[in-house]
Amino acid sequence: QVQLVESGGGLVQAGGSLRLSCAVTGNAFSINAMAWYRQAPGKQRELVAVITSGGSTTYADSVKGRFTISRDSAKNTVYLQMNSLKPEDTAVYYCNSQSHILGNSWGQGTQVTVSS
Fold first, then answer.
1. Dihedral pair phi/psi, residue 106, rounded to 5°
2. How many CB atoms are located within 10 Å of the residue 50 CB?
3. SS3 letters for 20-87?
4. Cα angle 105-82-6, degrees, rounded to a multiple of 5
């Protein structure tokens, strides 16, 4: 099993920054990729950013140039640095892990609210 715990959400003004963290415990050795998703009220969950075990990254067009996904393997932690935040970034942000052995795992989510 893999357990994911997010932290770092909160309320910020437009143009501000936040850094989300996702602590990974359990069978982290089997993880192929980590990702951040978000879900705004009344909308479907959408992919924000992905980082593979090889370090490759992919971003949604809406966050390119503003968000950065990274990882600290020694700490088993994945980060999402969010800069130049916009009100439309308001959502619950979820950490996700993808394992060829254990399948997908999800964190409980952390709320990000950007005020205009």
1. -130, 145
2. 18
3. EEEEEEECHHHEEEEEEEEECCCCCCEEEEEEECCCCEEECCCCCCCEEEEEEHHHCEEEEEECCCCH
4. 30
Calculate Rg over the CA atoms of the chain: 13
- pLDDT tens digits for the chain (116 residues)? 899 999 999 999 999 999 999 999 988 788 899 999 999 999 999 999 999 999 999 999 999 999 999 999 899 999 999 999 999 999 999 999 999 888 999 999 999 999 99
Strands 10-13 and 110-115: what pairing?
parallel
Beta bridge partners of 77: 23, 72
